[in-house]
Specification:
Number of strands: 45
Family: Belongs to the LptD family.
Number of helices: 2
Shape: elongated
Function: Involved in the assembly of lipopolysaccharide (LPS) at the surface of the outer membrane.
Main location: membrane
Distance between the termini: 30 Å
Subunit structure: Component of the lipopolysaccharide transport and assembly complex.
Helix content: under 10%
Strand content: over 45%
Organism: Pontivivens marinum
Largest sheet: 26 strands, antiparallel, barrel
């Protein structure tokens, strides 16, 4: 039954009252609603079994158990209530609140004030589900009073005591936190406890600051037992055309390494107009050991770059400068080059049925001590493919480019200028054979490339800066120039020969394989013997991949000479199940220009979801040649609907960047409902009442 109430209608929002029975008390004139009573005003809905409306003073009395829902965020449960006609002010007894389906607050009494504030007295708050079988929550807050501001979406506590597993651990005369429904708000984030052999016990307590809708900042004091206090800072801003992130750490006390230790980083991009984008990725360091010592990074070289770029459908250009900060004890910073500038331009277009490209590059290296080099390159290429009626794919290609080199301060060459003309011409033949059945599709594709490359000039007057490391595998088997840079070029007449195989099944059990090698008319001295490309015939390239099931996959690649002696091997196994994921990688590299000894490493990572609450992870990296670990780490996580505890331990077994081997421990606690959810809110919620 529905009835219009004249006094309610005087409010700004219309009010609807629905009940099984509605009557009027003859003596008092009060309106009495009984049985499945629902009263709605704006975003406020009250439900109960009995309600009394006194038209004389405009109050609403609810002598029975009741529920008040305000929007989607707040639900109030109570034993008794005395409210005004707008349901926005009054007194509630035996109140229990559920905010954003997370934070629960129980109070002896509550008041609604001005339609904005909910004041609750003698409260216990927690996001843990409290049941008869689990009467003590993992965490809770007891306070004399809490005020929820529905406009600012904040909670304010007075004389609050934090409890863990029923034990008081912290008293605060006042504190506040954002409403759980708030996505961004200023306040403290989850604390982090850690320990290291280098700095001893450490504690982090981040404070997040929302500046406006487009920017925020985070300040994190990092207190250590043996190295004093560090201050971490992060600033983020989003623009209409880009974004910027500034971060850094400063050690507030001086030590024997230096008076000022820390780092500063800037990462961002901005569209300047006309599709031109400016990018920055820079890091400044106080000393070589800081990042590793305090667990920020194990990198032994830090790359900083400033660039401008423009990408269009058929063209792009970039201009950049790059600075390398070496943290290696065996490498002097004076000998590390700085790139200023590096510019590249590419433009492709259709030329009849062929595809053409023109390009230009400028590159300059400078050093404090040692060789300086500048290079300018222009070039063009043409590519044409044709498919015959039997299915033979024919492709012809050609390119030509010219280089001008200027070398200064070279220890061997002195000062020298050199020009070079490079050209490549070739043909490619592919013939895919396909066999299909209802259960299997197989593709066998023999591939042959015939290539001839030439270059003029004196190659001995051109230092090799960018083509020292050559990777020969299935991805470069059919490349016409396997040098990664420009300083060296693949010349002579050679044939890239290979066979590719692929089988596809409806069940997803797919197999791929590649085998091939390179044949030359004469050896090319530019390739080191460790690359597998020296000599008349290259090493064999072998690669495969197999998806055994939806959850299991294998892959591998290798280089083998005529005696089937392996110079490089990589094997990988992956398993992804409902509760377990596992990944393992084995790599073997024979001694080459970068390492005078053979290297073999095994990397393993595993994650295991033990049950609804527990999960663990384990990983390590091991040097098999020296039978020693390089690094290892493990983690254990426990969480439910209201809290997550993460424990981690890691060990670095090697000395790097002037930092001795060390072990680190970490503990992070996240409490759902106090402005942060993390994984807790997504975990299994126990099914018992509020």
């Amino acid at each position: 039954m529905a009835i219009a109430v004249p006094s309610f209608a005087q409010q700004n929002d219309r009010v609807a009252l629905v009940a099984d029975r509605i009557s009027v008390d003859a003596e008092t004139g009060a309106l009495i609603a009984e049985g499945n009573v629902t009263i709605i005003r704006g975003e406020t809905t009250l439900q109960t079994d009995r309600l009394i409306y006194n038209e004389t003073d405009g109050t609403v009395s609810v002598p029975a158990a009741m529920t008040i829902q305000q929007g989607d965020a707040l639900v109030l449960y109570a034993d008794f209530a005395e409210l005004d006609s707008g349901l926005q002010a009054g007194v509630i007894a035996g109140a229990r609140a559920l905010i954003d389906n997370q934070l629960q607050v129980a109070a002896t009494t509550a008041q609604q004030v001005d339609g904005r504030f909910t004041v609750m007295n003698q409260i216990v708050a927690s996001s843990c589900t409290i049941c008869e079988e689990n009467p003590v929550p993992i965490w809770s807050i007891r306070a004399e009073r809490v005020v929820r501001d529905s406009t600012e979406l904040e909670f304010h506590y007075e004389n609050a005591v934090f409890e863990l597993f029923g034990v008081p651990v912290l008293y605060l005369p006042y504190f506040r936190h954002p409403d759980p429904s708030v996505d961004r708000a200023s306040g403290f984030l989850s604390p982090e406890f850690n320990s290291s052999d280098i700095y001893g016990f450490g504690f982090k307590l981040p404070y997040h600051i929302v500046i406006d809708d487009s920017s925020d900042a985070t300040l994190t004091p990092f207190t250590t037992a043996e190295e004093g206090v560090l201050l971490e800072a992060e600033y983020r801003r989003v623009f209409d055309r880009g974004e910027l992130e500034l971060s850094g750490v400063s050690k507030l006390q001086s030590d024997d390494v230096g008076d000022m230790r820390g780092y500063l980083s800037a990462v961002g991009h901005y569209e300047l107009g006309f599709d031109v984008v400016g990018r920055i990725d820079m890091t400044l360091l106080s000393d070589d050991a800081f990042l590793t010592a305090f667990g920020y990074s194990d990198d032994d070289r830090i790359t900083s770059e400033l660039s401008l770029e423009k990408f269009e459908q058929n063209s792009f250009w970039t201009v950049s400068t790059v600075y390398f900060d070496s943290l290696r004890t065996t490498e002097s910073q004076d000998t590390v080059p700085m790139i200023l500038p590096e510019a590249e331009y590419r433009q492709s277009f259709d030329l009849g049925t062929a595809r053409a490209e023109v390009n230009a590059d400028i590159l300059s290296y400078t050093r404090t001590r040692g060789r300086d080099l500048s290079r300018a390159t222009v070039g063009a290429g043409l590519d044409q493919s044709y498919v015959t009626e039997p299915g033979l794919v024919l492709r012809g290609f050609a390119d030509v480019s010219g280089d001008i080199y200027s070398v200064r301060n070279d220890a061997t060459l002195g000062d020298v200028d050199e020009t070079r003309l490079r050209s490549t011409v070739g043909m490619e033949f592919r013939m895919p054979f396909v066999r299909r059945t209802a259960e299997l599709t197989q593709i066998v594709e023999p591939i042959l490339q015939l290539v001839h490359g030439e270059q003029s000039g004196n190659i001995n007057d051109i230092p090799n800066e960018d083509s020292v490391l050559v990777e020969f595998d299935e991805t470069s088997l059919f490349s016409t120039n396997r040098f990664p840079g420009t300083d060296r070029y693949e010349t002579g007449t050679y044939a890239n020969v290979g066979l590719r195989y692929e089988s596809i099944t409806p069940s997803g059990r797919n197999l791929t394989g590649t085998v091939g090698r390179v044949f030359r008319d004469k050896p090319l001295a530019s390739f080191a013997n460790s690359t597998g490309l020296d000599g008349l015939n290259s090493d064999y390239v072998v690669a495969f991949g197999y998806d055994a099931t939806d959850t299991i996959s294998f892959s591998g690649s290798a280089l083998a000479d005529d005696d089937f002696e392996l110079s490089r091997t990589e094997l990988q196994f992956d398993y992804t199940g409902a509760d377990v994921s596992f990944s393992s990688t084995y790599v073997y590299l024979r001694a080459d220009a970068t390492s005078v000894v053979d290297r073999a490493e095994l990397v393993m990572d595993m994650e295991y979801q033990i049950d609804d609450n527990w999960s663990g992870e384990l990983g390590f990296r091991r040097d098999l040649e020296n039978d020693a670990f390089i690094s290892a780490d493990a983690g254990l996580t426990w969480g439910n609907e209201c809290a997550t505890f993460e424990f981690s331990v890691s060990r670095r077994f090697t000395t790097s960047n002037n930092v001795e081997p060390s072990t680190e421990f970490g503990l992070t606690m996240r409490l759902a409902g106090l402005g942060t959810q993390g994984d807790a809110a997504e975990r299994r919620r126990r099914s018992c009442g509020i």
